[in-house]
Specification:
This protein has about 450 residues and is of the alpha/beta class. The protein folds into three domains: about 130 residues, Alpha-D-Glucose-1,6-Bisphosphate, subunit A, domain 3 (Alpha-D-Glucose-1,6-Bisphosphate, Chain A, domain 3, 3-Layer(aba) Sandwich), CATH 3.40.120; about 180 residues, Alpha-D-Glucose-1,6-Bisphosphate, Chain A, domain 3 (3-Layer(aba) Sandwich); about 80 residues, TATA-Binding Protein (2-Layer Sandwich). Helix content is about 40%, strand content about 20%. A hairpin with a 6-residue loop joins strand 8 and strand 9. Helix 1 packs across helix 2, helix 3 crosses helix 5 and helix 13 runs antiparallel to helix 14. The radius of gyration is 22 Å and the shape is globular. The chain starts with 8 loop residues before the first strand and ends with a helix.
Length: about 450
């Protein structure tokens, strides 16, 4: 039974494996595996309190663990606090950037990192033993609950303190005007408070969670909302978080979108690493820019856990994804959108340059991204029409760009990415690839 994807267990709330019986089994299996005190946080979805309550009941049923609720809190805070306060593990109830109907269970080991494949396999095996017969067919009605009103837990305050301890003391952001799009998610309280405490003039937007508006036309998934707000010209820069706060995208004073690749370029010029860890989705232009700066790029599979694992293996000090997951070696955990915001703001303050100045020579290669919704994950190597078209596309793009076709690790999507120095070429090959996918799936019917 395979339940864990690239970022925990994730599906529509109420549907297996996020129905009542399965959540109880998941909580018990995690409690048995980790043993001890487990920190448990949640995001602002209507289903999060229900899932959190069942997960805690399962953990406590294990007889080996005790759950410590952290309230509404960003995912990276759970990771950081788990390590800093010697918890045996951490759990975050969140589906990150997905719509509010979805939810998930992310699990962290005692050092605040994602679980290894071996530990996940053991937990999955135990879950299979605990599940009652026929549970996969059960869909539960999920209570329509409001987000927790206890927004200032001691754990949230402790997260703020830990973040601030890595930066200069005092109001070093004084004079900076920032628009913060909090995606109506877990950063809605903490991000504006931290930035204000450091002296910034902050205008929060999309920071009033209702339980149903998380990621809805806002945040890092929809940066156009922040870009529109920035057109008023009253801010030095803007930041857009996703629902659980582990990623962030930025908009400069002139209105330019600054994604994770651009942030990696800025940070590499400050850190001066020998190598940066990216993914198969890292823009071709970043590879060339790093190369001209004498910095290598190592590509891994999509997912911040794979970036972290490669950073551990190679000793790299910086890694990240275009989507806004950035990992710094001094934290050595998962992506943290607020940490990235502070690092980028610190670069602006210390160099006395604007975000436009820091990214002036950044221009991404034209790129097209498409997601094809699928009902089953057919092995790509068995899709003959797609394989033939991919070979032709790769030959045409050789030396000019790249093609990536992969299944999403968090959604039922087959993703296609094409980038090159010619947007029209991208469009032509995208149409051919999508046509091939359609034909292959038609032949399977």
């Amino acid at each position: 039974m395979k339940l864990f994807g690239t970022d925990g267990i994730r599906t529509r709330a109420g549907v297996f494996p996020l129905n009542q019986a399965a959540i109880l089994a998941i909580g018990q299996a995690i409690g048995e595996e980790l043993g001890g005190r487990i920190l448990v946080g949640e995001d602002t979805r209507t289903s999060s309190p229900w899932i959190l309550g069942l997960a805690i009941e399962g953990i406590n049923r294990s007889g080996r663990s005790h759950a410590e609720p952290a309230g509404v809190i960003p995912t990276p805070a759970v990771a950081l606090l788990t390590r800093a306060h010697s918890f045996s593990g951490g759990i975050m109830i969140s589906a990150s950037h997905n719509p509010f109907e979805d939810n998930g269970i992310k699990v962290f080991s005692r050092d605040g990192t994602k679980l290894t494949d071996e530990v996940e396999a053991r937990i999955e095996g135990r879950i299979a033993q605990l599940l009652p017969a026929g549970v996969e067919a059960i869909t539960d009605s999920v209570p329509d609950l409001n987000p927790s009103q206890d927004t200032r837990t001691r754990w949230l305050r402790r997260y703020e303190e830990l973040l601030a301890s890595h930066f200069p003391q005092g109001r070093w952001l004084a004079g900076k005007r920032i628009i913060a799009d909090c995606a109506n998610g877990a950063m809605s309280v903490v991000a504006p408070e931290v930035l204000r405490a450091l002296g910034a003039d902050v205008r929060p937007i999309c920071a009033t969670p209702t339980g149903r508006n998380i990621n809805a036309s806002c945040g890092a998934v929809h940066p156009e909302t922040l870009m529109s707000a920035m057109k008023e010209g009253v801010a030095d820069f803007g930041v857009a978080f996703d629902g659980d706060g582990d990623r962030s995208l930025f908009v400069s004073g002139s209105g330019k979108l600054v994604d994770g690749d651009a942030v990696l370029l800025v940070m590499s010029r400050r850190i001066k690493p020998s190598c940066v860890v990216g993914t198969s989705m890292t823009n071709y232009a970043l590879e060339k820019k790093l190369e001209s700066d004498g910095v290598g790029l190592t590509r891994v599979a999509v997912g911040d856990r794979f970036i972290f694992e490669e950073m551990q293996r190679s000793g790299a000090t910086l890694g990240g994804e275009p989507s806004g997951h950035i990992i710094f070696s001094d934290f050595r955990l998962s992506g943290d959108g607020l940490l990235t915001t502070l690092k980028l703001a610190q670069a602006m303050v210390e160099t006395t340059q604007s975000l436009d100045d820091l990214t002036r020579d950044w221009s991404p290669a034209p790129q097209m991204l498409k997601g094809v919704r699928v009902s089953q994950r057919v092995p790509l190597e068995s899709m003959n029409r797609l394989q033939a078209t991919m070979l032709d596309a790769s030959a045409a793009l050789n030396g000019y760009g790249r093609l990536v076709v992969r299944y999403s690790g968090t959604e039922p999507l087959l993703r296609v990415m094409i980038e090159s120095d010619d947007a029209r070429r991208n469009d032509e090959w995208m149409k051919k690839i999508l046509r091939a996918i359609e034909e292959d799936f038609e032949n399977l019917r």
